[in-house]
TrEMBL record:
Organism field: Brumicola blandensis
Cofactor(s) for this UniProt protein: pyridoxal 5'-phosphate
Highest taxon above the source species: Bacteria
Phylogenetic placement of the source organism: Bacteria, Pseudomonadati, Pseudomonadota, Gammaproteobacteria, Alteromonadales
Entry GO MF terms: pyridoxal phosphate binding
Chain positions with N6-(pyridoxal phosphate)lysine modification: 37
Keywords: Pyridoxal phosphate
UniProt name for this protein: Pyridoxal phosphate homeostasis protein
Length: 229
């Protein structure tokens, strides 16, 4: 029996290569994060057997349960990409390798305190509300630099870069403009923080536009695991 998930992964790697070539970039600088939210552990295992190692989860408890069930697959890298309430921060600090949706100092301080001493620092992307939408998570671009200064002393956090979910738009030029803003903001950050290496933008529907604008990590769910219920 063929493994549909393995086929999908292969197709997305081919698409990443194609988009990278169009953008004049090296595809090996673009990581594929498989977003497995709402999907069963058996789907993650199929992707793992196809050689995939990094997975993104949106819901804390669901993610923690999956991580526990797959503890024996110790080379998986687990990324938390959803909204986080401060009373659940410990679960993220103790279980995940990455957190993409950091948007306030209070959560950062808690994660820093709660990260176990024996663990590597938690990798962090700061989420940007790039289209300055009313009810969207993330810091405004103007709030970013002050927040980064407050994060710098937190030694159990390793700030790697930025993440955004641009406003969903059917107009391609609007979508591109959001990604361009992220690209510029990331470049500005890198002048002050040359260690920044991660720009987490691009999902199933807007992969190429994100890669054109410097994405180093695309977060893909539907195109790998199929539509969610
Ligand atoms: C669900 C989700 C994705 C994946 O979206 P698809 O459209 O299924 O590829 C990526 N990033 C975040 C933050 C998500 O919540």
């Amino acid at each position: 029996m063929t493994n549909q998930i393995a086929e999908n992964l292969e197709a997305i790697h081919a698409e990443i290569q194609h988009c990278a070539r169009l953008a004049g970039r090296a595809a090996n600088n673009i990581e594929l994060l498989a977003v497995s939210k709402t999907k069963p552990v058996s789907d993650i295992v199929l992707a793992y057997e196809a050689g995939h190692r990094s997975f993104g989860e949106n819901y804390v408890q669901e993610g923690v349960d999956k991580i526990a069930e797959l503890k024996h697959l110790s080379d998986i890298s687990w990324h938390f990409i959803g909204p986080l309430q401060s009373n659940k921060s410990r679960l993220v600090a103790e279980n995940f390798d990455w957190m993409h949706s950091l948007d306030r100092l209070k959560i950062a301080s808690r994660l820093n305190e709660q990260r176990p001493a024996f663990a590597e620092p938690l990798n962090i992307c700061v989420q940007i509300n790039i289209d300055e939408e009313e009810s969207k998570a993330g810091v405004l671009p103007s709030e970013l630099m002050p927040l980064l200064e407050q994060l710098a002393p937190l030694s159990k956090l390793k700030v790697r870069g930025l993440m955004a979910i641009p406003k969903s738009s059917k107009v391609k030029s609007e979508q591109l403009a959001s990604f361009q803003k992220m690209h510029d903001l990331f470049a500005t950050c890198q002048q002050k923080y040359p260690q920044f290496d991660t720009l987490s933008i691009g999902m199933s529907a807007d992969l190429c536009a994100a890669i054109e604008n410097g994405s180093t990590m695309v977060r893909i769910g539907t195109a790998i695991f199929g539509a969610r219920d």
